[in-house]
Amino acid sequence: MSTVAISRPVPGPAVTVASMPSPAITALDAAGLPYRLISHGAVGSLAEAAAVRGVAVPDVVKTIVVRRGADDHLFVLTPGDRVISWPKLRALLGVHRLSMPDAAGALAATGYERGTITPFGASTAWPVVADERLRGREITLGAGERGLAVAVDADAAIAALDATVADVTDPQPTR
Protein backbone atom coordinates (compact mmCIF):
# COMPACT_ATOMS: atom_id res chain seq x y z
CA MET A 1 0.00 0.00 0.00
CA SER A 2 1.45 3.36 -0.97
CA THR A 3 0.86 6.72 0.60
CA VAL A 4 0.77 9.85 -1.51
CA ALA A 5 0.83 13.20 0.22
CA ILE A 6 -0.12 16.33 -1.65
CA SER A 7 0.06 19.77 -0.07
CA ARG A 8 -2.78 22.08 -1.02
CA PRO A 9 -3.73 24.67 -1.91
CA VAL A 10 -1.64 24.28 -5.05
CA PRO A 11 -2.49 24.99 -8.67
CA GLY A 12 -4.14 22.12 -10.45
CA PRO A 13 -7.30 20.09 -10.33
CA ALA A 14 -9.03 19.37 -7.05
CA VAL A 15 -9.59 15.86 -5.81
CA THR A 16 -12.81 14.64 -7.34
CA VAL A 17 -15.57 12.25 -6.44
CA ALA A 18 -17.37 10.88 -9.51
CA SER A 19 -15.98 13.77 -11.59
CA MET A 20 -17.28 16.38 -9.14
CA PRO A 21 -15.05 18.36 -6.76
CA SER A 22 -14.91 16.73 -3.33
CA PRO A 23 -17.00 18.81 -0.91
CA ALA A 24 -14.37 18.36 1.82
CA ILE A 25 -11.50 19.59 -0.34
CA THR A 26 -13.62 22.43 -1.73
CA ALA A 27 -14.48 23.50 1.83
CA LEU A 28 -10.84 23.34 2.97
CA ASP A 29 -9.75 25.42 -0.01
CA ALA A 30 -12.57 27.94 0.56
CA ALA A 31 -11.52 28.29 4.21
CA GLY A 32 -7.93 28.96 3.13
CA LEU A 33 -6.84 26.23 5.53
CA PRO A 34 -3.43 24.75 4.65
CA TYR A 35 -3.49 20.94 4.53
CA ARG A 36 -1.73 17.88 3.21
CA LEU A 37 -3.87 15.46 1.26
CA ILE A 38 -3.01 11.83 2.02
CA SER A 39 -4.21 9.11 -0.32
CA HIS A 40 -3.56 5.70 1.20
CA GLY A 41 -6.16 3.23 0.01
CA ALA A 42 -8.36 1.03 2.14
CA VAL A 43 -7.51 0.38 5.78
CA GLY A 44 -9.00 -2.11 8.20
CA SER A 45 -8.53 -0.31 11.50
CA LEU A 46 -7.69 2.98 13.11
CA ALA A 47 -4.20 1.68 13.95
CA GLU A 48 -3.67 0.74 10.30
CA ALA A 49 -4.86 4.21 9.24
CA ALA A 50 -2.30 5.78 11.60
CA ALA A 51 0.47 3.58 10.21
CA VAL A 52 -0.23 4.35 6.55
CA ARG A 53 -0.67 8.05 7.33
CA GLY A 54 2.63 8.08 9.23
CA VAL A 55 1.12 9.47 12.42
CA ALA A 56 0.43 8.29 15.96
CA VAL A 57 -3.00 6.83 16.74
CA PRO A 58 -4.13 9.93 18.75
CA ASP A 59 -3.51 12.05 15.64
CA VAL A 60 -6.09 10.11 13.61
CA VAL A 61 -9.16 12.10 14.53
CA LYS A 62 -12.53 10.39 14.55
CA THR A 63 -15.44 12.57 13.44
CA ILE A 64 -18.49 11.28 15.28
CA VAL A 65 -22.00 12.39 14.34
CA VAL A 66 -24.19 12.84 17.41
CA ARG A 67 -27.95 13.33 17.33
CA ARG A 68 -29.54 15.73 19.83
CA GLY A 69 -33.02 15.52 18.39
CA ALA A 70 -35.01 15.39 15.18
CA ASP A 71 -32.88 17.07 12.50
CA ASP A 72 -30.45 18.33 15.15
CA HIS A 73 -26.94 16.91 15.01
CA LEU A 74 -23.39 17.90 15.83
CA PHE A 75 -19.91 16.66 15.06
CA VAL A 76 -17.59 15.54 17.85
CA LEU A 77 -13.88 15.34 17.03
CA THR A 78 -12.03 12.80 19.18
CA PRO A 79 -8.41 11.64 19.22
CA GLY A 80 -8.03 8.13 17.82
CA ASP A 81 -7.12 6.64 21.19
CA ARG A 82 -10.17 8.06 22.99
CA VAL A 83 -13.95 7.70 23.01
CA ILE A 84 -16.78 10.12 23.67
CA SER A 85 -17.60 10.52 27.36
CA TRP A 86 -21.37 10.71 27.13
CA PRO A 87 -21.78 12.27 30.62
CA LYS A 88 -19.21 14.98 29.81
CA LEU A 89 -20.77 15.72 26.41
CA ARG A 90 -24.31 15.84 27.83
CA ALA A 91 -23.15 18.22 30.57
CA LEU A 92 -21.37 20.47 28.05
CA LEU A 93 -24.46 20.62 25.82
CA GLY A 94 -26.94 20.88 28.71
CA VAL A 95 -29.02 17.95 27.49
CA HIS A 96 -30.17 14.70 29.04
CA ARG A 97 -30.22 12.54 25.94
CA LEU A 98 -27.89 12.07 22.97
CA SER A 99 -27.59 9.27 20.46
CA MET A 100 -25.66 8.26 17.39
CA PRO A 101 -27.60 7.92 14.16
CA ASP A 102 -27.42 4.68 12.20
CA ALA A 103 -25.42 4.63 8.96
CA ALA A 104 -28.35 5.90 6.87
CA GLY A 105 -29.04 8.67 9.39
CA ALA A 106 -25.39 9.75 9.43
CA LEU A 107 -25.33 9.87 5.62
CA ALA A 108 -28.55 11.90 5.55
CA ALA A 109 -27.23 14.34 8.17
CA THR A 110 -23.77 14.84 6.65
CA GLY A 111 -23.72 13.75 3.02
CA TYR A 112 -20.85 11.38 3.89
CA GLU A 113 -20.77 7.65 4.51
CA ARG A 114 -19.46 6.38 7.84
CA GLY A 115 -15.69 6.09 7.69
CA THR A 116 -15.44 9.18 5.46
CA ILE A 117 -17.26 11.75 7.61
CA THR A 118 -15.66 15.14 8.14
CA PRO A 119 -17.19 18.45 9.21
CA PHE A 120 -15.54 20.07 6.19
CA GLY A 121 -17.99 20.18 3.30
CA ALA A 122 -20.76 18.33 5.10
CA SER A 123 -24.20 18.82 3.58
CA THR A 124 -25.21 20.72 6.74
CA ALA A 125 -22.78 22.80 8.78
CA TRP A 126 -23.63 21.26 12.15
CA PRO A 127 -21.93 22.61 15.29
CA VAL A 128 -18.56 21.05 16.12
CA VAL A 129 -17.19 20.03 19.51
CA ALA A 130 -13.47 19.20 19.58
CA ASP A 131 -11.84 17.36 22.43
CA GLU A 132 -9.30 19.62 24.13
CA ARG A 133 -6.51 17.08 23.58
CA LEU A 134 -6.43 17.96 19.88
CA ARG A 135 -5.01 21.44 20.46
CA GLY A 136 -1.42 22.11 19.53
CA ARG A 137 -1.02 19.12 17.18
CA GLU A 138 -1.12 18.22 13.55
CA ILE A 139 -4.08 15.89 13.07
CA THR A 140 -5.48 13.82 10.24
CA LEU A 141 -9.16 13.77 9.37
CA GLY A 142 -11.24 11.94 6.83
CA ALA A 143 -11.58 13.82 3.56
CA GLY A 144 -14.98 12.59 2.45
CA GLU A 145 -13.75 9.56 0.49
CA ARG A 146 -12.51 6.13 1.54
CA GLY A 147 -8.72 5.98 1.64
CA LEU A 148 -8.32 9.73 1.62
CA ALA A 149 -7.37 11.95 4.55
CA VAL A 150 -6.09 15.44 5.21
CA ALA A 151 -3.42 16.46 7.68
CA VAL A 152 -4.10 19.88 9.20
CA ASP A 153 -3.03 22.00 12.10
CA ALA A 154 -5.62 21.21 14.76
CA ASP A 155 -5.80 24.76 16.10
CA ALA A 156 -6.38 26.16 12.60
CA ALA A 157 -9.06 23.53 11.89
CA ILE A 158 -10.77 24.22 15.23
CA ALA A 159 -10.82 27.94 14.41
CA ALA A 160 -12.07 27.39 10.84
CA LEU A 161 -14.89 25.19 12.17
CA ASP A 162 -15.69 27.61 15.02
CA ALA A 163 -15.57 24.52 17.23
CA THR A 164 -16.25 24.44 20.94
CA VAL A 165 -13.21 22.95 22.67
CA ALA A 166 -13.76 20.94 25.85
CA ASP A 167 -12.84 17.74 27.67
CA VAL A 168 -15.43 15.40 26.15
CA THR A 169 -13.56 12.09 25.93
CA ASP A 170 -12.30 9.19 28.01
CA PRO A 171 -9.45 6.79 27.26
CA GLN A 172 -10.31 4.00 24.83
CA PRO A 173 -11.30 1.00 26.96
CA THR A 174 -8.86 -1.89 26.80
CA ARG A 175 -10.24 -5.13 25.46
Describe the model.
The chain is an alpha+beta fold and 175 residues long. It has a single domain, classed as YbaK/aminoacyl-tRNA synthetase-associated domain (YbaK protein, Alpha-Beta Complex). The protein is 23% helix and 30% strand. The protein has five helices and twelve strands. Strands 1-4-10-9 form a four-stranded antiparallel β-sheet. Strands 5-6-8-11 form a four-stranded mixed β-sheet, covered by helices on one side. A hairpin with a 2-residue loop joins strand 5 and strand 6 (72-78). The longest helix has 9 residues, at 23-31. It is globular, with a radius of gyration of 15 Å. It starts with a strand and ends with a strand. Mean pLDDT is 89; it is low at 1-19. Residues 41-154 form the YbaK/aminoacyl-tRNA synthetase-associated domain. This is Cys-tRNA(Pro) deacylase. One of its GO terms (molecular function) is aminoacyl-tRNA deacylase activity. It holds the Pfam family tRNA_edit.
By secondary-structure content and strand pairing, the structural class works out as: alpha+beta
Count of β-strands: 12
Query: What's the total helix number?
Result: 5
The description of the largest β-sheet is: 4 strands, antiparallel
User: N-to-C SSE series?
Assistant: EEEHEHEEEHHEEEHEE
Question: pLDDT average, as an integer?
Answer: 89
Q: Give the fraction of residues assigned to helices.
A: 10-25%
Radius of gyration: 15 Å
Q: How large is the share of residues in beta strands?
A: 25-35%
What is the highest CATH level, the class?
A: Alpha Beta
The number of distinct structural domains comes to 1
In the CATH scheme, what's the topology name?
Answer: YbaK protein
Strand order of the largest sheet: 1-4-10-9
Shape assignment: globular
GO molecular function, one term: aminoacyl-tRNA deacylase activity
Organism: Micromonospora coriariae
Domain YbaK/aminoacyl-tRNA synthetase-associated: 41-154
Pfam families: tRNA_edit
